[in-house]
Design a protein that fits this description.
The protein folds into two domains: about 70 residues, Helicase, Ruva Protein, domain 3; about 170 residues, Tetrahydropterin Synthase, Chain A (2-Layer Sandwich). It is built from eleven helices and seven strands. The strands form two sheets. It has a four-stranded antiparallel sheet.
Length: about 300
């Protein structure tokens, strides 16, 4: 039997919102496999999580840089939220974002690139600033989008300064239409992405493993109803359509008007601008995704529930 620790129970509760004892039971049923435990909780109706999204715990900033035909996002982490208000740290993130724009969002190349005004690489400069600012800092992620014809729009949520915040989004629109209205539309869609957190641009681009896992969980949920297998198959297909509407960008209901899908918004924009418009890509970067900070007060509660 797997050793179920307090940390395992805490991580599962953070990801699912299920009760501590339910999380402990799920881990026991799945030999400590967290992914399988999430599915077990969902199949039992004990978790509403459709996507694995751990509680944001890392601090720092997401930085944005925009160019004529492209944009870049970086995430620079620190130990506390206080550092996000430090002007020296903010300047660092802005500069690294501009460098990431030049490297096409390649993390390794960004870390190796020369930091302006110094004789050091970006990674070395960040390490040096650790002693100055007094907190451990890391360049965790970088990403970029570019268009041949069209515009890249961006949005920063929970901004603390221009181009700096807790969530950054890029949306690339390809079109021969005028760049100004395209950029405005791309920014609105970026705002939608920040709010709706799509997993993929289209159904075809969804991770096959995510699709297969969702289908399996929905099948187990349907079987709990005791219906015949042929009815279960229809139930699963109907719920899969709803799943796609929740996680696929072009199938999501546009948060700006609450009526059309994002795909219909793009189609309508093409007619209005007189040239076809398509979304070639998007990036959503939220501060601290997948990074967990120890919560000492809650840890004691979980330890008691886990019996450790």
């Amino acid at each position: 039997m797997a050793n179920i620790t307090a940390q395992m129970v805490k991580a599962l509760r953070d990801q699912t919102g299920a009760g501590m004892m339910d999380c402990k039971a799920a881990l026991a049923q799945t030999a400590g496999d967290t992914t399988a435990a999430i599915d077990w909780l969902r199949a039992k109706g004990l978790s509403k999580a459709a996507k694995k999204s751990g509680r944001v715990a890392a601090e720092g900033l997401v930085g944005l840089a925009l160019g004529p035909k492209g944009g870049a996002l970086v995430e620079v982490n620190a130990e506390t939220d206080f550092v996000a208000r430090n002007e020296q740290f903010q300047d660092l993130v802005r500069t690294v974002a501009r460098i990431a724009l030049d490297t096409g969002g390649n993390l390794e190349e960004t870390a190796r690139a020369a930091y302006p005004g110094t004789d050091k690489a970006v990674g070395e400069h960040i390490a040096e600033l650790v002693g100055t600012i007094g907190e451990n800092m890391t360049l965790r992620r970088a990403a970029a989008l570019a268009v041949t014809s069209g515009a890249v729009g961006a949005y920063v949520h929970n901004a603390v300064a221009d181009g700096l915040g807790r969530i950054g989004v890029l949306v690339a629109l390809e079109s021969e239409a005028d760049a100004e209205p395209l950029a405005a539309l791309a920014r609105q869609i970026a705002m939608h992405v920040a709010a709706a957190s799509p997993l993929a641009l289209s159904v075809d681009q969804l991770d096959p493993g995510i699709v297969a896992r969702e289908r399996q969980v929905l099948g187990e949920q349907a079987r709990e109803s005791g219906r015949p297998e042929n009815i279960i198959d229809k139930m699963v297909e109907g719920r899969m359509r709803k799943f796609y509407e929740d996680v696929v960008l072009t199938a999501q209901t546009y948060v700006i008007d609450g009526e059309r899908t994002v795909g219909k918004v793009i189609e309508d924009a093409g007619r209005e601008l007189g040239r076809p418009v398509s979304i070639s890509g998007f990036v959503r970067m939220a501060l601290g995704e997948g990074v967990e900070r120890e919560d000492s007060n809650f840890a004691a509660e979980v330890a008691a529930a886990a019996g450790t």
